[in-house]
Specification:
Number of helices: 3
CATH topology of one domain: Thiol Ester Dehydrase, Chain A
Bound molecules: ligand 3IX
Shape: globular
Number of strands: 6
Helix content: 10-25%
Strand order of the largest sheet: 1-2-4-5-6-3
Largest sheet: 6 strands, antiparallel
CATH architecture of one domain: Roll
Order of helices and strands: EEHEEEEHH
Strand content: 25-35%
CATH superfamily of one domain: Hotdog Thioesterase
Radius of gyration: 16 Å
Length: about 180
């Protein structure tokens, strides 16, 4: 992965153990918001990613590239692939049971991804330092051990739930997340 210093964890940054209440190994993670473009089940044209954590520390999901995801004829659009990486990385930091947003997302495109391809996505955390989480993901063609088509590195920033109240619609999230309080 060609990674900038901004997405490289500083020395000593370690991923914490999942807190009580975090998804257990083997658990499906579900959607964090029904209208999310990445995982929302109610989104009419979204990616509809469904993820699970095999070990409580990493996240896996599959994304099949469809006609709606084209950039060049019969090839996936790079921005759509970046959205899939953003989503699976977001799910991996959700394992820590705190709200984070993407601050920076870096993507390497290594192979073209034809329509009809199933990408096997995997994301994990390389470390947390203060409010900053350093994360990484890869997308492999056709199988969990297939050739790597996309790699991503990201810096996610921890926010309070007030972030969503101030800038978005906290009530819509709270309706689906009784486990997140505005003033815990
Ligand atoms: C997404 C919905 C979540 C719903 C939450 C509800 C429940 C959670 C449940 C489930 C979640 C599960 C899955 C989520 C899956 C996918 C989600 C996809 C994620 C997204 O798609 S989310 C949308 C795109 N995202 C944004 O919409 C962010 C817009 N942005 C801002 O809202 C501010 O920009 C913010 C808050 C990022 C920072 O603002 P701020 O004022 O709080 O903090 P500040 O600026 O001081 O930064 C603190 C330290 O981070 C460094 N830093 C900041 N930004 C940086 C950058 N870009 N590059 C390098 N370093 C950066 C600073 O340099 C400083 O570092 P230092 O402390 O060392 O000085």
């Amino acid at each position: 992965m060609t990674r900038s210093s901004l997405t490289t964890p500083p020395p000593g940054a370690a991923a914490p153990a999942p807190p009580p209440g975090a998804p257990l190994p083997g658990a499906a993670l579900g959607s964090h918001y029904g209208h999310c473009f990445g995982c929302g089940t109610e989104h009419p044209t979204g990616l509809h990613l469904t993820a699970r954590t095999p070990d409580g520390a990493t996240v896996e999901a599959e994304f099949t590239v469809g006609e709606a995801h084209q950039g060049a004829p019969k090839l996936a659009h790079g921005g759509v692939l970046a959205a899939a990486m953003d989503e699976v990385i977001g799910m991996s930091v959700y394992l820590f049971h705190k709200p984070y947003v993407t601050g920076r997302l870096e993507t390497d495109y290594l192979l073209p991804v034809p329509v009809g391809t199933t990408l096997h996505l995997r994301a994990w955390c390389n470390g947390i330092s203060g409010r900053k989480a350093y994360l990484e993901a890869e997308g492999r063609i056709g199988a969990p051990d297939g050739p790597v088509a996309v790699r991503a590195a990201a810096l996610f920033i921890e926010v309070s739930m007030e972030h969503f109240a101030e800038h978005g619609d906290l009530a819509a999230i709270a309706a689906e997340h009784q486990d997140f309080e505005v003033n815990p």
